[in-house]
TrEMBL record:
The gene is LOC110984424. It comes from Acanthaster planci (Crown-of-thorns starfish). It is an enzyme of class 2 (transferase). Residues 80-100 are annotated as: Disordered. The lineage of its organism: Eukaryota, Metazoa, Echinodermata, Eleutherozoa, Asterozoa. It is a single-pass type II membrane protein. This is Hexosyltransferase. GO terms for molecular function: hexosyltransferase activity. It is found in: Golgi apparatus membrane.
Length: 404
């Protein structure tokens, strides 16, 4: 017969065994969940760079998984591609994932490394007026001259006929330490850079776009409108603000709308850069979407797109992905004229005339210098407009090279 003392001892042993088993089972499940989660990220994040003390992190919806990714000492520096060979191992997995789900199927597992979280509030305080338009420019870390060209033309903090505009640049990370240091000093100098800890690559443009909308939701939800722009675009803010004058403040999205476009299925064809296997996107056509060059939306739409993006399967083409999220969120995009105009760069007169009549023209800047010719063309084109325009003095923008 077992004594009371032995009974207590056995009971304690049973409790200890149960507790150890529970801990081991929980750890095993977490490891498996994390492994699945990391495998599900088509493009790997880069190393976790130390943040500056002034950086403020925006809240995220998935702290456990995000913190696991963000706080690792070192992560792979590889960037995925969409070649058929690199996707073979994930075809069955992708095939099983739905395009849309009420569950979180596409988390945003990154954190800010450069935030400039007070950019909107500082602009509003400085000019004592509400922010009419926030412009988010997708830029590569090494494209310093593109950013400076934009600052010297349409990308300054500006008051145009009592309408305040602010431009911010969206960047990913780079392995080049010299470029990283340059971006850090550039951000200190101009306070107009936003960056997260994903690798800056063409196939990560969706992450970059979602980063921008996340920043809007966290730090600039009071802007009236948000524009998404590529760095090779020249904007006519006078025309854009005039277009927005009679547009609704809510549930609004407008650009050069594309409909019934089909995915590119030829992995070795002329446009293999946009190769999209059925396993990645099974539907025969894309939803209506705006080309990524330039489109504009009300601030609530930008916020909604980020919030709902976690329920939409990841696609590396940022413009199509935004279209997918808008379809999921029941946002109806509008077609608008003048958002994406191609002009031969050799024809200055054509550039000037197109810029005067359009909202956005595509004009690639010089890679290794500021294009003074384009700056002069821009300035001449803007002479047509009688609107009162104030902004950051040009002389304050010029000495960037000495800063770096």
């Amino acid at each position: 017969m077992i004594s009371r003392r032995n009974t207590k001892l056995l009971l304690r042993c049973a409790i200890i065994v149960y507790f150890i088993s529970w801990v081991l089972l929980t750890a095993w499940r977490n490891d498996n969940d994390t492994a699945v989660y990391l495998a599900d990220q088509r493009f790997t994040v880069g190393p976790d760079f130390q943040d500056d003390r002034s950086v403020v992190h925006a809240p995220v919806k998935h702290p456990s998984k995000v913190d696991y990714v963000a706080n690792r000492d070192r992560l792979s520096f590889e960037v995925g591609t969409l070649s058929s060979s690199s996707n073979n191992s994930r075809e069955s997995e992708s095939q099983d994932r739905p395009m849309y789900s009420n569950r979180i199927i596409n988390p945003h597992p990154f954190h800010f490394t450069i935030t400039n979280h007070e950019a909107c509030t500082n602009a509003i305080k400085e000019w004592s007026m509400p922010l009419r338009l926030l412009i988010l420019v997708k830029s590569r870390p090494e494209d310093i001259f593109d950013r400076q060209q934009i600052r010297l033309t349409w990308g300054r903090v500006q008051n145009i006929s009592n309408q305040l505009t602010l431009t911010m640049f969206l960047l990913g990370q780079t392995a080049n330490e010299t470029v990283r240091n340059g971006v850090f000093h550039e951000s200190i100098r101009f306070n107009d850079i936003i960056q997260e800890n994903f690798i800056d690559a063409y196939t990560n443009l969706t992450y970059k776009t979602m980063m921008g909308f996340r920043w809007v939701a966290a730090f600039c939800p009071f802007a009236s409108f948000v524009a998404s722009v590529d760095s090779d675009i020249i904007l006519n803010l006078h025309n854009l603000l005039q277009r927005l004058a009679d547009r609704p403040r809510y549930s609004f999205a407008e650009g050069s709308l594309k409909t019934n476009w089909t995915p590119y299925r030829d992995a070795e064809g002329l446009y293999k850069k946009w190769y999209t296997p059925v396993e990645l996107y099974p539907e025969p056509t894309y939803p209506p979407f705006f080309p990524g060059g330039c489109y504009v939306m009300s601030c609530d739409v930008a916020t909604t797109i980020f919030q709902e993006s976690v329920h939409v399967r990841f696609l590396p083409w940022d413009d199509v992905f935004v279209g997918l999220v808008m379809r999921w969120a029941d946002i109806v995009p509008r077609d608008g004229k003048g958002y994406q105009v191609y002009v031969p760069l050799s024809r200055r007169t054509l550039i000037r005339l197109a810029l005067q009549k359009s909202i956005a023209i595509i004009a690639k800047h010089h890679a290794k210098s500021v294009d003074n010719r384009l700056i002069l063309v821009y300035q001449k084109a803007m002479q047509k407009f009688n609107s009162v325009c104030e902004g950051t003095p040009m002389t304050d923008l010029e000495p960037i090279i000495s800063v770096l």
